[in-house]
Amino acid sequence: MPKMNMLQAINEALTIAMETDERMLVFGEDVGHFGGVFRATSGLQDKFGRERCFNTPLTEQGIAGFANGLASNGMTPVAEIQFADYIFPAFDQIVNESAKFRYRSGNEFDVGGLTFRTPYGGGIAGGHYHSQSPEAYFTGTPGLKVVVPRNPHQAKGLLLASIRDKNPVVFFEPKRLYRASVGEVPEGDYEIELGKAEVVAQGSDITLLGWGAQMEIIEQAAEMAAKENISCEVIDLRSLAPWDVDTVAESVRKTGRLLVNHEAPLTGGFAGEIAATIQQECFLYLEAPIARVCGLDTPYPLCHEKEYMPDALKTFEAIKATMNY
Amino acid sequence: MSNATQKDERQTLVHRVNFIEGNALSIPILKILQADGTTYEGAIEPTIDQQLALKIYDTCVFTRVLDERMLGAQRQGRISFYMTCTGEEAAVIGSAAGLDQEDVILAQYREHAALRYRGFTTEQFMNQMFSNALDLGKGRQMPIHYGCADLHYQTISSPLATQIPQATGVGYSLKMQGKRNVAICYFGEGAASEGDFHAGLNMAAVHKAPVIFFCRNNGYAISTPTEEQFAGDGIASRGVGYGMHTIRIDGNDMLAVLAATQQARAYALEHKAPVLIEAMTYRLGAHSSSDDPSGYRSKEEEAKWREHDPVQRFKLWLINKGWLKEADDAALYEKYRQEVLDQVKVSEKIPCPSLDELIEDVLDTPTPALKQQLAELKAHIKKYPKAYPKTSGRD
Prior knowledge:
heterodimer, A: 325 residues, alpha/beta, Rossmann fold, 2 domains, five-stranded mixed β-sheet, globular, B: 395 residues, five-stranded parallel β-sheet, two-stranded antiparallel sheet, 12 helices, 7 strands, 40% helix, EC 1.2.4.4 (chain A), Transketolase-like_Pyr-bd (chain A), oxidoreductase (chain A), thiamine pyrophosphate (chain A), 3-methyl-2-oxobutanoate dehydrogenase (2-methylpropanoyl-transferring) (chain A)
């Protein structure tokens, strides 16, 4: 299998999807000739023409509304929001329109062909507005799917599945890994099923759950724990909405302990939803309270970024505290 | 003028279908200063004396030097990010010079020259860029996100156009408070595509807020050229649609910018109403230190615009006036190069704000839950001091 970084894998997925679906369009700020500020859409305009891959004016609400209109009329729009921090002008179009198009019309209309791609997350010295992880604003909205890949292989398969899914999908890309994550990626067309978590490493003492860029952090913490003879089962949730309760619950019934890690602030983060569901599903199996290792309840800071992040050391400490509860 | 409301009976009626062309309105560009530093025949200079002119020029030189040095510092890895104002100094400084010191500035992010004009010190610039303990913004935002209440310059927020409707609110509040001040709102032609632009200008016109909306039409929104940004006659034509006093000017012409801003300010105060200024200019540098313009525009195009250097044009005017000598100019550059270099060395050694600052200002007082999070963080750092070198061992 060829090795590539996450941007190349995303670019391949977009290319394949455009080749296999002539109704598919790719658009957003700077995505045309320039290929996007991260170059995820590099070469698409040359290959598919300006009518199918183009720059939009600088308006996220316009991009999202335009995408809704295209999807409602049978097209397959893949819209890029340049940074997840800038998705909020589009919030109304996504939350009130994309998410409710099918339901409000009694399935007379839908925008199922729609996918939003947007880079999220910190660790790049991006301060308040180039670092946020806003996934929980969207997981709290019925009618949307929310997907986050952890590496190039996953990114290609999950993006192809998201584009072809018959529901609007918000696809969060961990920008910290865009170039940093390099791995083998299968050639050609393949999809990874949405709504399914993946057990990345088997273990018996505690289940560590995360998604996106934090999977690397969790795996580092699991290695540290292994040196202290703690056996961690590591799960990548991959889809946050809908999320794979069965796989997580099955793991927790085995290990008796759960730790959830995400970059977004603790309060109102998606870990809270997971913890509530798992205590319901696995109450009599739990040996310790479900641990959450998350960002602090502050805006994403610049100079204290390292201190703010739910890093491997904090995760390792939480693993030990859960084991010793 | 008729007003397209149901109550207005003065509207002109026609009885045949007759569309108005999308390009029917073509707004001229005000130019006062020629490339050789002389003024156009018949042009009227703004109110400007030697002292004001030299203060403007001093700010130009400082900004050039700051941009050159700090982009270099970013390339050396000393700061994480930078954005230059190069090529747009006349638009920013000429407008700042047309204001009162207490007029409120709401900038986009490329207007640090206006802050300098107001009196922001070299030390204050450096402390922000190095995110150190003396930064007014407490090290929380990326470099160039300045703000200073004393200088009536609201803190920069990276999301585009959010400051536009806010400026309307600020302007309206100045009117309510009976102050003889206006708000000025800077933004680019790209940001003018955001919904906030429409919301802000429409509300300002309807509610009669004394605001100068100052658009820097610099040709590009990152890589996107103006022809992919809008199809009409620029940004100025929209002002007319909002029923707003509007002008288009050469943004590289210091005297045109100053004259337009002085008169816009007087109008805004007298009529308690907004004004739109569209300054035609060119972003000579990259969008930011993360950008490489060679991917979307030619060297020839950049070279052509370098010939329209706003600082050079204004300098020639000063020399023609006998207000500046070449030798003084060279000394000014040298003075600021040294000053910036010296301050870099000082500011980069000042530590980052203490960990306690991390939880301040989220609300007016930290919640008990947040204090608990900080206590846990401090205990964690005490356990692993080497992993957190910026904050360990400090309390």
